[in-house]
Structures are given as C-alpha cells and as structure tokens.
Sequence to fold (840 residues):
Amino acid sequence: MTSLFQNLFQKKVSGGKIKDYSEMPTIEGMEISAVSAGLYNSKRDDVCLFYFKDGAIFSGVYTKSSTRSVCIDWNIKANKKNIKALLVNTRNANAFTGKQGLDSIIELSKLFISTRKIKEKEILFASTGVIGQPFPLQKIKSVVPELIEKLKRPIKLSWIKQALAIITTDTFAKMSCAVVQSSSDFINIAGIAKGAGMIAPNMATMFGFIFTDVKISQTVLNQMLKRNVENTFNAITVDSDTSTNDMVLLFSTQKAKNREIKDINSPAAKKFEKALNEVMLDLAKQVVLDGEGAKKFITVNVTGASNNNSAKEVAMSIANSPLVKTAAAGSDPNWGRILMAIGKTNEKVKKEKIEIKIGDFLITKYGMIAPSYNEEKVKNYMLGDNILFDVNLNLGKGKFTAYTCDFNAEYIAINADYRS
Amino acid sequence: MTSLFQNLFQKKVSGGKIKDYSEMPTIEGMEISAVSAGLYNSKRDDVCLFYFKDGAIFSGVYTKSSTRSVCIDWNIKANKKNIKALLVNTRNANAFTGKQGLDSIIELSKLFISTRKIKEKEILFASTGVIGQPFPLQKIKSVVPELIEKLKRPIKLSWIKQALAIITTDTFAKMSCAVVQSSSDFINIAGIAKGAGMIAPNMATMFGFIFTDVKISQTVLNQMLKRNVENTFNAITVDSDTSTNDMVLLFSTQKAKNREIKDINSPAAKKFEKALNEVMLDLAKQVVLDGEGAKKFITVNVTGASNNNSAKEVAMSIANSPLVKTAAAGSDPNWGRILMAIGKTNEKVKKEKIEIKIGDFLITKYGMIAPSYNEEKVKNYMLGDNILFDVNLNLGKGKFTAYTCDFNAEYIAINADYRS
Fold:
C-alpha cells in the first residue's frame, strides 16, 4: 500500500466508510493503547499512549505560533534519544492554560516516572482541543494506569483504534504505511494524522505521528523530517489559519536489521526517504480531504517560478484564497481569481508569460485568454471532485505543489455553529 | 455630516435603504455624468465621467498586484497636474486583456483628445469587472458623446447617480463628504467608493475617488493621500484577497479661496487632513459594511505592539482569519481563535502579557482566562451587529485599528454561484 489517499478519495467522495487499514504494520519495539477519559462526556477514546519499551529516537517539527501549547515547549526540551512515551489527549489544547497547564503535564510525567522508571525528559505530550480552558488533569491522570495496562503488542490491528483516539471533528481516521526492503530485512513505516481544519474549529490542531523501525542516525532522522515536511504537511492548507498545537513527530525504534543509515545521500537513505515521503504526503492529503466541509480536493501546481520559495508563496496564495476556493465550490472556472492570487504575491511575474491550465485545459497564454478556451468544457471538468490548477510563470526553475479543498457553506456552518 | 457610516450602519442593519445624500457638496471646477452603455444588458448606468474643465491636480494609490489592470499602468504614467477627465466603467476589469485592452483605452483617450482638446496624459481610466474578457470598446465608445453632453454643474444632486454608476455587486451607493472652514472661505471634500468584496466576486475592485477644491501643493496632496490611505482603505479587509484593479484617487480643482497649503505640518494642513481622513475612513467603513454577505461590522483594535507595523500585522491577521470571522458570524466568543491569529504573526508576543477584550469584557490576562470571564455575557454582546475585538500586547507603543465583517454562508453563496 503506497497511498491510502487514493483509496480514501474514492470512498469519501462516494460517501463510503474507510475500511482498508489491514496493511498497517507492526513496528518492533512499540506498544500502543487508547482509552476513554470521558473528556467528551461520552465513551469515545480520547487519550492514547505510544510506548517504546527500549526507547526510540525522534525528531519533531512544531507550529511556529508564538501562542503555542505548553506541550510544545515541553517536547522541545525533551531528549532526542531514548524516548519512552508519547501521551496524546483530545478536547483540551493545553494552550493558554498558564501554570495549571504546565503543572498538569509535570504531574502526568511523574506518574510515568514512578511506575515505569522513565525519566522526565523521556516522555512527550500532544494535546488538541479548546484553547484556554483548564487542563483536565484529574480525568487524564485517572486513566493512565489503564492506558499502561492495555498496552498492546503486536500493534498491527490496534492502529485504527489509536488513529480514532486522536481525532476531534475529523470524519475518518487517517493512516498510512510503507514497507521498504533493505539488504537484510524489511523496514516498516506507519503513520497516523489528525486534521479537520488547518486548525479545526476550536479544536486547534494538526498532528502527524510517524513511526518506523529503521536503524538511522539522529542527524539523518532530523534532516529527513525537516525536508520532507516541506512538501507534505507544510504544503497543505484548509483555511490559512495556524494552530497553536500543530506538530509532526517522527520516531524510530531502531529495531530493523538494516545497516544504520548515516548518510542522507546514500542509496539506502534515498530508498527509505522516498517511502517516508509517500507516507507523509499520503497523510497530509488525507487531512485536506477531510477539511471541514470539503467536497473537492484541489492540487495547485506552480512551476517556472524564480525559485522554490516564490513558487511556494504563489501556490499557497492560490490555495488560501477564499475567492479561488469558493469558485471551486461552485465549479466555476473563474480563472481571473487565480490570476488575482498570483498577483498579490511578492513574485515579480510577467503577465505575458503566465500560463494557467485547469486540468489539461489551457486557459491563458501571452497575457490574455487562450483562443482555444472553452468555458463549457472547463466547467464540466470542474464539476469533478479532483481539480488541478496548473500555473507556469515561465520565469525560472522554482516549483511547488500545494493541496487544498474547496470552501463552501458547510465550512461556515461547522465553524460558526461549533460551540453552540 | 462627518460620518455617513453611522447613519448607514443603523439603516443597513435594520434593512433600510440609504437616503441621506443631500449634504454632498458641489466641488467648484468639476462636472460629472453617468450613462448606460448596456454593459450589463440592462439600463443601469455603467459608465461615468468626472470632468475638470480647468484641470485638477491628483494623487493616486494603486493595488500592489503584479497582474494589475492596464488602467493602472496608464494612470501611473499620466500627468499629475492639469488632469481633465476620469472615465470609469464597470463589468469589465480591463485586466489580462493584452494588446486589445491597451489599444481600447488609447482609442477612448483619442475621442477626448479630438473633441475636448485634452492631451493623452490628462485623462485617467478606472475599470472594474470580469478579468480576462475582451474590453467592450465599441459599447463604451458609443456613449462617450452622451457622457460629455450630459456633464452637469452644479453637481450637488448628481452624486448619487455617479456613486451608483461605479458599483457592481454593492448593495448601496457609498458617499461621504466634509466641509472645512478656512480663513477666507469653505473647503469642500466629497468622495465616493465601490467595494463589495476586498475584491468582489469576479468584479474585482475597490475604488475610492475623493474630490476637493482645496488649494494645495502637489507634494502635500501626495503626502496626505499616502499616509491617510494607511489607516482607512488599507485598514479594511473583507476576505484577504487583493484585486488587480484597486485604486484610490484624490483630486483637487484648487478652486477654493484658501491660502495654498504648502506645508503638511501647518495648522491649515492639519485641519484639512483631519477632515480628509474622516471622509476616507467613512468610505472605507462603508465598503466593509457592504462586504459580501456581511451581517456584522467588526473593529479590531491592537495596541501595545512593538511598533505600528507589527500592530497592523496582528490586527490584519485577526481581521483576515476565516475562523475568527466565522465565529463572529455565529456570535461565538471563541477567543482562542483570536489568540491563534495573534500567534501566527511575526510579532514576538509574550503569552502572559496579552490582554484580550471583547467589547468591554476582559477575556484574558496573565496568560490565562480572566477570572471575571462570563461566557454568557460575552455571547450576548456578540449577538449585536457591531463588535469590538481589543488586543493589548503590552510590548510597546505600536497600534493599529482594522475593520472587517463576519464570514457567513451568504459570502459563500455569492462567490460560489456568482457567474452561473
């Protein structure tokens, strides 16, 4: 399985439920569990634990928000090696919770320290939910023994439960995986994600958690996460808003039998990185696909920019434009709005060089509408669920692909009415 | 009349029509006319002319879009003194129209050159409408004689007709005016605007046209327009999108009997500038009030930023956030979203210093929710039509006030369905 996204896409747009998670692998050295702490006043699982008996190395990428959650401050200070646990809760973001928020995770960490002989810097936290509400320490604390008791190994069939325990307003569990053949054995990669909005209503978070058993150096792990986040999780947008809690964490238990990857340019590294990128992109696309109210998946492909950064700025400007996204919702080939979104960036475009395609249809060339343009045909294309906006600025070699969804009345309904 | 906005606000939110335009003044040396060129296949006025028999000096501020309309390229090259005419059309933006677009305005300018002895660089153009469609030269050309024939003076009662001729999806005409007493006489200021979206559906433009008879130097006129645009037309946002055609033009016929204003720091300059700012702010607020689908007017007041630029970045981040705007639509005091919007800027905020008020209600202080916070009361306040978000970052003296509207299902309906 390289892309659950393709599979999901078919099912989501036809209204079906996602069933195919049987290929998710076991990651040696890892145990997982999920329980309900009653945070939603229901029995749904809302707290979960990822446990690495012999430790794991990890790398993290976090929201750049300056009002970020205390979890992120905590994780940044954690050890990079020998991580033993990641505890995730929903319903409360532990952001803007002051001293009570920090004291709470200190107290939770102590529970693990005393029962599992873990050090303070060997445990990570991730929270998603309402900002500024007191952290529900007692409820979460009371289920930690149960979480530890329920830890499962092998984990193959428990992924779905885990993926469901981290979501908020998501409509399906987001999972992806890959298997890479090494010289001596197989390397497994498994990931789960949580989305719903770029930030969901006031459930404010995107999470990406990726686990592998690859033997790899800390340095290469860091490099790989950093550069593969750029064209996956950092290439998607639902509503241009940035969460206080976003994080992508990549763990390796180092249990596979491959020769340790120490050089990011080695053939083994490249092979692994390709699979890692596929898993991350697949998860990222699933987040967009489940964007609040989303009915259409939109790919914005920008080439010919003066450099890759400019290409990203242009692609994100198009992908974030409410006018482009509402036009998509209405299946309206309103390409003037794409042009507007290009124009508002810092890229020094030349009008007469811009080529815009919608799907395979050429829209503009030489600074004006293409003679072959046929609105009826393009409109027909845009009635579909999977839309490509392809922009060639013809200035240089910069390129970037962004992913987004349409912007429709359902987004408004979800976000205006959420808490009432 | 200093603020038609207040008046409009009462009428708009109670569903009434705007009637009070009787105070709009005559600007000596200026004539106006509006006719229908059938651009909408209806009889509504869609082309209008502003004519300065003895010339006017002017200053312009234009969209920063790199895919801007050919009108803007044209106007930038025009003379600054002795401007004789401004021709405005709706329905077609003359953007991305290639050679045909430029040739069209050259041909229109020739009509004026031959019949009115105007030079090419003494005429300005403003277009708003669909991007990328061939410019309707013949239709507009055919009504120029009628426009010239219908020029009216005094213009006092013709403003409403003119203001209605420049709108597209706006629901009311936007006008404002002021009278300033000088040592020897009165100075008049009259302005009209067009909005509907920051850019309207694919009617892509905000216009602000302000006319005065003040005797003033070109230098001071330029300085005044530039600095007063910052906290008026550049302080509003409907949907964060930037048009290819936005422009604000300030004309002076120099017919008033005041002593020429040559120093922007003189008392006479300050008195005039205050009135000019009021007119510009009034028009800008009317544009927001008429934002597509807008039901609520939102003021975002940021103080205590490290500098004014940072304050503007924070204010616009809040004002542009779809999540903040949808929360406003739902009258939901979801202040975590305000915090999120603050956090995603470059301002180096200190969480524990941020004070947020909604109306007069203190929401956060010392990095957590204020003990006095009462959600019921704040929700009740947010049910109103006029909402204030007040943020003090307590870092420095930077401040900025932005204006926006809520984001609701009607915006989506207008923009998704517009062209079909």
Observations:
- Chain B has two domains: 4-289, 297-417.
